[in-house]
Amino acid sequence: MKRILVVKVTSMGDVIQAQAVVADLHRAFPGVQIDWAVDEAFADILRWNPGISRVLYAPLRRFKKTRSAKDFAAIWASIKELRRERYDAVFDLHGVYKSAIISFLARAKRRFGYDNVNLGERGAAFAYSDRFAPRHDRNAWDGMRRALSEALDYPIEPVPSIVLTVPQPAVPPETVRHAPYALLFHATSKEEKKWPVANWIAVGQSLVERGVTPLLPWGTDAERDNAEAIARGVPGAHVLPKMSVVELAQCIQLSALVVGTDTGLVHLASALRRPTVMIFSATSRPHFGIDIPDLCISIGDDGRPPSVAEALGAIEHVRKPA
């Protein structure tokens, strides 16, 4: 194979964890060029992967809300850019209408997609010439890696390799003056995935006692209010200004610890190999959790949020007190 297109459009955590297939494909097909189609919101993350030759992106999520002529024009331009190259194979790792349309429009000899029973939207089946089935006896991303390797008959390394090179800031982020610090990603888009403010306060207080400064990111006004409520209960904690994904990634790289809910930025912390504790309350830990021995760990599960004691034990596990 000389050129491959991978289609995984959203969400942030899924896109980050799926980066492992890039290293797999480069090992299997030395010299291969890999392009990736993604929603515009996550294009920067793919640019951090030196194994990706071309990032194809469009404002798909935004257009769904705005229906604006400007966003439609951007999508149309992205289609023309997509069709500029010819691919030996397209791998749709998403399995919904929008990813299927991208796969179908690409100029390719073969288009791989999930079996019908594993598609997110059954109608996506029209796009594929070849099918594969994800392995359900493993977590989502390991199962995806193994499914691709079996479809193309190549071996994979047991430990996934995700290489992301975050651009260095022109000046060090303001968080360095708080070092050593822990980023507490308390925010989540789904109410049921939240962890109680009282629990965050207890964890923050424990970190301060160890000489670690809790820092609280946020993205919306409601999340800022939540961050301020936590900070009021943790003398020494700081609410960060609103930051871009790039700025947060730069802060993650310099952190002593990351604790957060099952969200994209916590998956990013794991991919950047920072000591990380991921908290599950409403999604499946075995299916979506992170697990890097002595470095990244998941706690709780769907319908069983972890206790403060479990969180503090996990922090001890991934990081010695400062």
UniProtKB/TrEMBL annotation:
Main location class: membrane
Presence of keyword Protein transport: no
Cell compartments where the protein resides: Cell inner membrane
Pfam families given in the database record: Glyco_transf_9
EC class: transferase
Chemical reaction(s) catalysed: an alpha-Kdo-(2->4)-alpha-Kdo-(2->6)-lipid A + ADP-L-glycero-beta-D-manno-heptose = an L-alpha-D-Hep-(1->5)-[alpha-Kdo-(2->4)]-alpha-Kdo-(2->6)-lipid A + ADP + H(+)
Cleaved signal peptide residues: none
Biological or metabolic pathway of the protein: Bacterial outer membrane biogenesis; LPS core biosynthesis
Family in the record: Belongs to the glycosyltransferase 9 family.
UniProt xrefs under NCBIfam families: heptsyl_trn_I (TIGR02193)
Protein name per the record: Lipopolysaccharide heptosyltransferase 1
Lineage of producing organism: Bacteria, Pseudomonadati, Pseudomonadota, Betaproteobacteria, Burkholderiales
